[in-house]
Design brief:
662 residues; mainly alpha; six-stranded mixed beta sheet; 10 strands; disordered N terminus
Length: 662
């Protein structure tokens, strides 16, 4: 979300010739900004307190469309419109606080972030500086997923949408004006087209619909439509609909939205609530009682004036707190972050924004050019940090550098490319590795990411035995499970068939995070697992199942001390109680025992034995971090579990066939 810092709603100043393009000041719009930004901030700081607070973003889209379109229409009417002038104003209003926030993030990250975190931050700084952050996040994961909390510049997605909109909209408005077309009709048609894309796409393409400027433009166009109607009907920038009823209905819709709007399938039809609320409140005009008394009070206006920098500062502070603490920070920390953001917002407004807003004409040329150069330099700095893998040579992070590297996924991309080419795996959903790419595989490792996180250790062992291990990345590696719309599960079946029908493969190893239990709906997975074991045993394959490792109740990053920052969350000991792990697999263990009795030839390797003793299951052993996140082994952990697998496999080979691990 961005909060448009338009001078339209700035307190009135002495009249100047340049001021004639400004619309009359409306304190109620600053008050509406305050409600919107506080909704977003409270949602981010205390999600359960205001579960629909995120709709403040949509309110700001409407406000921005109304104010900016109003200015453009006034300029067109007075024949003062200039594309260069428009973008110069955008630079003066948007760049100063944004530059300060991104620079502060890079500076803090230099001292406190691990290389992978700093690399991600650099990438997102590049996205923010180029106003394309929404496309960066579109290519990654959803806005509402848990990892969003560790992306300090995630909130710049909406600034990207807004600026992309304003690349096109001024020119479209100019063309419509010069052709003397009906402004209201053209704007309404564009808004309707965008809304249809939003409503149709949200179910099947949720992430794309959320981040795409095409499916979000209707919200800005709703404000623009209001501005077009106001321009046609009145001279003071309002629609003439100054009724208490409109304002009351708008406020009721807004209250309903922030309290009850759900995150699922948003925006979609649900975004109509905040958009309609904003349109009604703006259209009601400044003399409606709610707008004049509630939204127009001094505190609301003050917060509205600093709403743009307040929004920019609040999320990085909350996100960095989450990163440093390793979990949702304590309420006192979140409150402190919000208050700090408020102070920084006020300072940004006083020291950065106001001095530049008064500059115009030739006096503004040098500051605008300097701001553009600084933005380009900041973007390049972010790209450099990303390209250099987060600058692991930074002096502040040299302590525990080996454990910081454990947090990064290790991948042999060349091997994967060669294996995919050999077996004709063309899509991103088909993945494989082969210890010796020029030899036929003799061992197949099938499974999801919990197969991948043991592949290095198993490869080392089997290579020492002269065996060629092939890892095939699947979803749940069992026969006949319904794939639905999951492309990874759809790719699983052919890989199972490949392992079954390849004569050189004598041993098949299964590894997955899926734990079998008695929950409703788990029966198909149990039956599929047993059917899979049956098929491979009938084909004369040796079947080994690697049982899962414990899920941690903490982020393993908290086991590593960060330089330059104090954290209340450094985990010691870096372990969970053994009883916690036993409770995680209680039902699975019962199913496993039943399956073992049904298929005594199947061998079971308990990977947890490499990490657990009678008292605890450790995430750090002998100073080496075994996990890269709460559920996956690090490269060191992979090798550690692999060494235990090697000893287990040697013991299995010495046992008579009937005496192998049940």
């Amino acid at each position: 979300m961005s909060i448009e810092p338009s001078s339209v709603t700035e307190a009135p100043k002495a009249a100047t010739p340049a001021a004639t393009t400004h619309l009359p000041y409306r304190p109620d719009i600053d008050g509406l900004r305050a409600v919107a930004v506080l909704s977003v901030v409270l949602f981010h700081a205390f999600p359960t307190l205001l579960p629909g607070g995120f709709i403040g973003v949509d309110v700001f889209f409407v406000i921005s469309g109304f104010l900016i379109s109003g200015i453009l229409l006034r300029e067109l009417q007075q024949d003062r419109f200039s594309i260069a002038g428009f973008y110069a104003r955008r630079v003066k209003r948007i760049f100063p606080s944004l530059l300060a926030v991104m620079f502060a993030c890079l500076a803090f990250g230099w001292y406190a972030l691990f290389p992978d975190e700093y690399a991600q931050l650099g990438k997102h700084v590049g996205g923010g500086a180029s106003f394309s952050a929404n496309f960066f996040y579109w290519a990654q994961v959803g806005y509402f997923d848990t990892s969003a909390d560790t992306k300090p510049l995630l909130h710049l997605w909406s600034l990207g949408i807004e600026e992309q909109f304003y690349i096109v909209w001024p020119a479209a408005l100019l063309l419509t004006w010069r052709r003397r077309a009906n402004l209201v009709a053209v704007t309404a048609a564009l808004a309707l087209l965008s809304f249809v894309l939003n409503a149709v796409g949200v179910t099947h393409h949720g992430t794309a619909t959320f981040y795409s400027p095409l499916s979000r433009a209707w919200e800005l166009l709703a404000g623009a439509l209001l501005a077009c109607a106001a321009h046609r009907n009145t001279a003071d920038g309002t629609t003439g609909g100054k009724t208490n009823g409109m304002a009351l209905l708008g406020l009721a819709l807004l209250a309903f939205g922030v309290a009850l709007t759900k995150q699922e399938h948003f925006p979609g039809w649900r975004a109509l609530v905040p958009v309609a609320a904003a349109v009604l409140l703006i259209a009601a005009g400044p003399r409606a009682w709610i707008n004049r008394v509630v939204l127009g009070n001094r505190l609301a206006v003050w917060i509205g004036l600093i709403s743009y920098p307040f929004y920019l500062w609040h999320w990085p502070l909350l996100s960095f707190a989450q990163i440093v603490e390793g979990h949702l920070p304590a309420p006192r920390i979140r409150i402190a972050a919000v208050l700090a953001a408020l102070v920084l917002a006020w300072l940004s407004y006083l020291l950065l924004e106001r001095p530049l807003r008064g500059l115009s004409g030739r006096r503004a040329r040098l500051p605008v050019a300097l701001l553009c150069a600084l933005m380009a330099a900041t973007g390049l700095a972010g790209a450099y940090v990303f390209s250099r893998d987060g600058l692991p040579q930074r002096a502040p992070i040299q302590d525990n550098l080996a454990n910081q590297k454990a947090l990064v996924i290790v991948e042999d991309k060349a091997n994967a490319a060669a294996c995919k080419q050999r077996y004709g795996f063309a899509s991103m959903y088909e993945y494989c590795l082969l210890a010796w790419p020029d030899r036929d595989p003799t061992v197949a490792l099938l499974g999801d990411s919990h197969a991948y996180h043991v592949v290095a250790g198993l490869t080392n062992y089997y290579k020492s035995q002269g065996e060629n291990l092939m890892m095939m990345g699947t979803r749940v590696p069992y026969w006949g499970l319904a794939a639905g719309d999951d492309p990874y599960q759809k790719a699983t079946q052919p890989m199972l068939e490949l392992a079954l029908k390849t004569p050189s493969i004598k041993t098949v190893i299964f590894a997955t995070h899926l734990r079998l239990g008695f929950a409703p709906g788990s029966r198909p997975a149990i039956d599929a697992a047993r059917d899979t074991y049956r098929r491979f045993l009938a084909a004369g394959k040796r079947v080994i199942v690697i049982e899962d490792i414990p899920d941690l109740s903490f982020d393993p990053r908290t086991c590593i001390k960060r330089a330059g920052v104090a954290s209340s969350a450094t985990t010691s000991p870096c372990a969970i109680p053994r009883s916690e792990w036993d409770s995680q697999v209680e039902q699975h263990e019962q199913i496993r025992k039943e399956t073992a009795r049904m298929f005594p030839q199947v061998e079971w390797f308990r990977a947890s034995d490499a990490l657990c003793d009678e008292r605890q299951c450790r995430a750090m052993i002998d100073g080496h971090l075994m996990y890269r996140d709460i559920g996956h082994l690090s490269y060191e952990g992979d090798l550690w579990v692999g060494s235990h697998f090697a000893r287990w496999a040697e013991q299995q080979d010495r046992l008579p066939k009937a005496g192998k691990t049940p």
